[in-house]
Amino acid sequence: MESDQSTAPLITSSQQEQTQSKEDKGPEQLEVVSHELFDKLSTYLQAELSGTKDTYALLEELNTIAIDQYTNLSHSATQIKDSLHDLDVKYKLLLPYLEQLNQLDVSVASLEQATLRLDAYTKVLESKFKKLEKR
Fold first, then answer.
1. Which residues, including other chains, have CB under 8 Å from residue 29's CB and lie 6 or more apart?
2. pLDDT at 132
3. Which of 27, 37, 62, 116 has CA 20 to 30 A from 133's CA?
4. Could you give the percent of the chain with pLDDT greater than 70?
5. Residue 44 to residue 50: CA distance in whole angstroms
């Protein structure tokens, strides 16, 4: 037990006087500390609100930029839609001519086949004519 007592801190008379004077000043010191606490809390909250305000201002700016971009995209999409509509109208106007071209292609292919048959027949006739000439 003696070792426990020897390690315990000794309270001096000056420390006791300070503790008593602090106890006497308790309400005054509490008021000062409270004011200090509220001032620091107020500063902290103002900083937090300022940060939040800046964040909302940045979000508002980003939203404005996004609105401008989407407006531009909408305008571009409208122009593309109008262009596609114009192309569709022109295609429908050209469709009869394209069908005529297809018919012409079929006719040319048929004429080409007839020409090849006629050429083959001409060669056969020429060969027969040469045989007749040699007799």
1. 22
2. 87
3. 116
4. 81
5. 10
